[in-house]
Recover the amino acids of this structure.
């Protein structure tokens, strides 16, 4: 059975998918902030990445540093097949919940 | 044309507070410290500093570090707060004949928790000093939440009941509530140091996995 993903985990995984080979910490943070349209703490993204890596949904490798980073290495993330399955399962679950309903909802509140 | 050396020196002059960088280094895993601090310094230099200026950029950086700081020992802090709240509830609604056994349970549980928090922090980061910081932040989270709970308990229950109010004052009252956390900080730091050394030893002994 695929992992059950939280909303923030989905946001981080989808950011990795969108960024492709450029998916490293800061780029993921910016992408998540842009998609969620709110300020997100770097610690929240890093904690989520660590958790996703521990679950085996993503893997990471160290890349080279740049001058603006004072030479500090960038850690690039890549989606694993298990991560892809978890994302597909999450999307299917949402689609199933919404099946038969028109969006946006009207007159139910 | 800008010489590489000049570019480096210009970039290096724009940097967050060194103490905040040092604290961050104590909070993240040793294998992630470089990439995490690199991500923050890149954002600081490219986005935050140019748009907000030095002071607000420094505030932003410290806030990010605080985010890491509160996240690392959050569970230990919540357990400590639960212990504190449970004890306050028991002391208020079921005062014992002798406080000894109850005090022993909470004291030794807290000691174990601080040592565990310190050990976990050092085990995770590979640095003994992280243990002190994690133990102290655990204490700060636990005592802040515990104090908030005690204030609520006092306002809603204790001050309306003369017997409970007398018992509250007999066991130290607000002097103990407000003064004890500061006095105990040193002991927590010592326990965190012990846990930190333990955690570093355990971390050094664990088998390494291939990167």
């Amino acid at each position: 059975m695929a992992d059950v993903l939280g909303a923030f985990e989905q946001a981080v995984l989808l950011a990795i998918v969108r960024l492709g080979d450029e998916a490293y910490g800061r780029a993921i943070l910016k992408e998540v902030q842009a998609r969620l349209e709110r300020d997100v703490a770097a610690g929240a993204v890093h904690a989520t990445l660590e958790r996703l890596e521990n679950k085996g949904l993503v893997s990471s490798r160290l890349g080279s540093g740049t001058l603006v980073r004072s030479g500090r290495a960038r850690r690039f993330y890549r989606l694993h097949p298990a991560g892809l399955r978890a994302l597909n399962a999450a999307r299917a679950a949402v689609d199933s919940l919404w099946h038969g309903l028109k969006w946006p909802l009207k007159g139910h509140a | 044309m800008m010489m590489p050396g000049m570019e480096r020196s210009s970039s290096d002059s724009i940097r967050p507070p060194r103490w905040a960088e040092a604290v961050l280094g104590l909070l993240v895993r040793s294998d992630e410290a470089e990439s995490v601090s690199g991500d923050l310094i890149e954002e600081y230099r490219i986005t935050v500093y140019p748009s907000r200026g030095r002071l607000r950029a420094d505030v932003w950086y410290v806030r990010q570090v605080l985010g890491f700081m509160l996240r690392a020992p959050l569970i230990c802090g919540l357990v400590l707060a639960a212990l504190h709240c449970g004890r306050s509830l028991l002391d208020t609604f079921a005062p014992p004949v002798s406080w000894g056994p109850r005090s022993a349970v909470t004291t030794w549980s807290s000691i174990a928790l601080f040592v565990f928090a310190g050990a976990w922090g050092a085990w995770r980061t590979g640095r003994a000093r992280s243990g002190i910081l994690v133990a102290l932040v655990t204490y700060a989270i636990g005592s802040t939440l515990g104090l908030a709970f005690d204030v609520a308990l006092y306002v809603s229950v204790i001050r309306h009941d003369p017997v409970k109010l007398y018992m509250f004052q007999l066991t130290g009252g607000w002097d103990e509530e407000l003064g004890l956390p500061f006095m105990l900080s040193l002991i927590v730091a010592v326990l965190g140091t012990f846990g930190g050394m333990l955690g570093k030893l355990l971390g050094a002994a664990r088998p390494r996995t291939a990167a």
